[in-house]
Amino acid sequence: NSAVGAHLTVPEQAFKPKLGGYKNLPVVSHFLDDSVHEENTKPRLVVIGSGWGAVSVLEQLEKDDYNVTLISENNYFLFTPLLPSATVGTLEMRSLLEPIRKITDRMKAHFLQVTAKDVDFDSKLVEVTDPATGKDFYVPYDKLVIAVGATSMTHGVEGLENTFQLKTIQDAIKIRRQVLENLEVAALPTTPPEERKRLLSFVVCGGGPTGVEFAAELFDTLNEDLVRWFPKVLREDVSVTIIQSRDHILNTFDTSISDYAEKKFDREKIKIVTNARVKKIDEHSVHYTVKNAGDPSNPETQQLPYGFCLWSTGISMTPFARNISEKLEAQKHQRALVTDGTLKLKGIPDGSVYAIGDCATIENPKMLSHIMDICEAADKNKDGSLTFDEFVEAGQYMCRRFPLATTHLSKMSDLFKKYDVDNSGTLEIDELRVLLTDLDKKTTNLPATAQVANQQGKYLGKSISRIAKASRQGVSEDQVVQPFAYHHLGSLAYLGNTAVGEFSWGYKMVGGLWALYLWRSVYWSEQVSLRTRLNLSIDWTKGAIWGRDLSAI
Ligand code: FAD
Questions:
Q1: What value does the mean pLDDT take over residues 141-156?
Q2: In the structure, which protein residues have their CB atom closer than 6 angstroms to any atom of ligand 1?
Q3: Tally of CB atoms within 10 A around 350
Q4: Best substitution site from 48, 52, 75 to test ligand 1's pocket, by max atoms within 8 Å of Cβ?
């Protein structure tokens, strides 16, 4: 085959595809950049995804242990924490992307830009499809890592097709275009005042970090660039509203942080509607109900006209993950792919499949009984009740033992106040048993963050390399693999020319210009390449000198 070239030693028969699996589709038996394939005795490791989890697996693998193939529908890694900055032109889209082939090349791994559709677990084949041609084929594996992330949660709300989401780079491109288009149409002298108001009504459904960071970026743009480059009169008509179902925004952070964020937004006239449930989004209005303090069983119905609406209210399984969960008995009726403590997918007897990141959850370790043991141990004088210090001690111990509970440590004083209804300064352990059932439910899932996906990926990369070595030396896998332990380093959120954050050593960062620089430094240092670091530095410098790029392309 002259196209292959004399320097490659790919045998002719390698190009004649074998058929396999329950659908009798072609099975990949070679790669164009690989001179050794079928004869290769190294186990085949297939990783699905090119996000935080998948890339971290690759970075930790020992190069020669596996024949690695990465499958993803995108040929880049996206640095999601800075995505809100790209929606308004603070950062350029390309500054957040690293071509995946640069990463796979470092690891001598193969890359296939295809979409995973299904897995034939019996024959160990991943069914993929090439979206360009619609052709399906199989990729064989000995070990499989599923790191496909998640999609947005719909909560069954009608009319979400009228909203924008912020998960992918394409979403950011669409948002940037729409926001600028709204500003331009609003600036036309022919636009009636009512319509101008509607076009400039920006609504964010969801008060978590993504919704809040987007609102902050948007507000910065409207405040800094709109007043500079558009007719000043437009500023009067602009409104930004966050609709949140809980009683605070950023409710996974400490209350001092969500209070700060709410006060800052209030000063800046970003309206926050809490305890609200969005019911329907029609072409021009968001319909929602708000808790009625006087009559909780009878919520008030409200309607808010919008010109742009972002839907950012949590995550749900991708079609591929759902497909897998439906075909395995052990996975049925779950909200994510369930794994054991070593991140192996439940329901695969030979333990050859792993799931990490946003698409996965570690099986509930049934913490409640442990929590009660810990509370009883913390009760020094054995009077059946805990003082605040004893309660915190129990909480800290729990967090060390069960990393799943870590994110709730900062809430200890809130919890104490909440449970101490009679303000006695102590909590009865028997009453706690009932109340903590609620906490137990919340702590079964690790947060869906890049931090978790990254730590799981690194852990898995190391463990599967150890497994390869152990198998060569005839040592059992159990002797070389410890369960995954999550170490929460902290959380950060951008709030518009400042940032907030809480760190694992207990420090809380609440505002100030230096917080903005700390926030930028953290994400700058977390970049996967020098190229993207340089791009970020250039974008921030350009923005400081000339403002944001407001061209809608
Ligand atoms: P992802 O990073 O989403 O990667 C999934 C990959 O799988 C993608 O490459 C996708 O193309 C690919 N894929 C999906 N389905 C298929 C398929 N069927 N076939 C082939 N490939 C497929 N976390 C933080 O810790 N800090 C933050 O500040 C932060 N900010 C965020 C801001 C935004 C706007 C968003 C959207 C998320 C943010 N997160 C943040 C969360 C973080 O991005 C996710 O938790 C993280 O990306 C999860 O990593 P993952 O590897 O599981 O999935």
A1: 95
A2: 48-54, 71-74, 80-81, 83-84, 115-116, 147-149, 166-167, 209-210, 318, 320, 357-359, 448-451, 453
A3: 10
A4: 52
Average pLDDT score over residue span 439-460: 80
Q: What are phi and psi of 316, to 5 degrees?
A: -145, 170
Q: How far apart are the CA of 442 and the centre of ligand 1, in A?
A: 22
Q: Within a 10 A sphere around the Cβ of 429, how many other Cβ atoms?
A: 19
Distance 80 CA to ligand 1 centre (A): 7
For 160, 171, 327, 373, the CA distances from 210, given in Å and listed in that order, are 17, 13, 32, 37
For range 432-451, the mean pLDDT = 68
The verdict on domain 12-73+114-150+317-362+451-479 having CATH code 3.50.50.60 is yes
Contact 87, 528 (CB under 8 A): no
**Contacts of 326 by beta carbon, 8 Å cutoff, 6+ apart:** 332
Give the mean pLDDT of 325-348: 90
Side-chain-side CA neighbours of 15 within 13 Å: the count stands at: 9
For residue 161, pLDDT beyond 90: yes
358 closest CA partner among 324, 315, 325: 315
Q: Decide which of 407 and 493 is more confident.
A: 493
When the candidates are 1.10.238.10, 1.20.120.1730, 2.40.50.140, 3.20.20.70, the CATH number that belongs to 367-442 is: 1.10.238.10
468: helix, coil or strand?
Answer: helix
How many whole angstroms separate alpha carbon 374 and alpha carbon 437?
Answer: 14
pLDDT category at 233 given cuts 50, 70, 90 is confident
Q: What is the pLDDT of residues 495-540, one digit of tens each?
A: 988 898 888 777 788 878 888 899 999 999 999 999 999 999 999 9
3-state secondary structure of 355: strand
Residue 493: count other Cβ atoms within 10 Å of its Cβ: 25
CATH fold, domain 160-315+490-546, is FAD/NAD(P)-binding domain (3.50.50)
117 CA → ligand 1 middle, Å: 18
With the most atoms of ligand 1 within 8 angstroms of its CB, the residue from 93, 176, 214, 449 to mutate is 449
Instruction: For residue range 398-420, list pLDDT tens digits in order.
Output: 666 555 454 455 567 777 777 77
Q: Is 480 exposed, middle or buried (0-12, 13-18, 19+ CB in 10 A)?
A: middle
Lowest-confidence range among 365-374, 378-387, 403-412? 403-412
283 CB-contact burial (10 Å; exposed 0-12 / middle 13-18 / buried 19+): exposed
What ipTM was estimated for this complex? 0.99
**Cα-only R_g, the chain:** 26
d(CA 463, CA 372): 33
